[in-house]
Amino acid sequence: MARPRPEPVQVVKQRRDAALGALVHGVPYIRFLGIEFDRRGDELTAVMPFEDKLIGNPLLPALHGGATAAFLEVTAIIGLSWSMLWDDIETGTLDPDDLSQGKLPRLPKTIDFTVDYLRSGLPRDAYARAQVTRSGRRYASVHVEAWQDNRARPFAQASGHFLMPSRDG
Amino acid sequence: MQRAGIRAHKGRDTNRKGRDTRMSVDKTRIAEQFITAIPHSRALGMELTGIGEGTAEIVMDYDERFIGDPDTGVIHGGAVSALMDTCCGAAAMSHPKNPGATATIDLRIDYMRPATPGQRIRAQAECYHITRSVAFVRARAMDDDADRPVATATGTFTVEAT
Hints:
Shape of chain B: globular
Number of helices of chain A: 4
Low-confidence stretches of chain B: 5-22
Mean pLDDT of chain B: 85
Structural class of chain B: alpha+beta
Distance between the termini of chain A: 38 Å
Oligomer: heterodimer
């Protein structure tokens, strides 16, 4: 029995990147903070390039706790949405063209979000990854870690609960 | 998270609940300086409208750049977090027993309902307990319907020796 020929790699990459781009660039506040996402397969790394407007303490200088919190929350929501939509992106059920025209599926809503500030955020680019600890039909728990120069020395971590959109429309 | 030690002058017109919330000329100037000294708070258009002995009130106007849900125009939770963090930090710093600067140790936000698009958000924070090393702060955020808070927050902040 012959296996169906796998899709060309460019087609797969283009579809995934189009879906991710639509998800991220469709949200004004993510654009305001300048956050982008690196993708390797299904693994996402959020990147927040340093800008002066992210500073909370100009004397040190250090990132604003609010900018750090927003970065972690954006990483959590996009990470959770990505894992929720992955199968539909892979099967083509979700059309990336629809997404890029602003027809976004309903996204998870934050119920609560707790941020631990482990050390002061330096005036450098910041990175973060989300881990969906539990994803049920109605609720999900997500943990996020953010670091700068050194992956083993996170400067902030967060965990939050999210309300999943109802899937029956 | 970290904030410079711009102290509110300990005047007698403090805005503890039920008391006079108007700011003196002196305090108004300090309040303006407090926000302009923090680039991120300035970028979000925050305005400090009240400061007392361990209390603070900050407002943030609706802005399309802060939208989190393009379908409804609701502000992103992250922008509300930034408002809450700034307001809680201001309350911690304004407490008479806090000698200087402060930094956030942790902050939890509960989102009760989406903020109504087009309305400004007002945060009120209160430092309800302070030790030599930690300030305990709680806050709530409201839109035009003040009876139904948009979000509440609880956090701990460092008390730094000067």
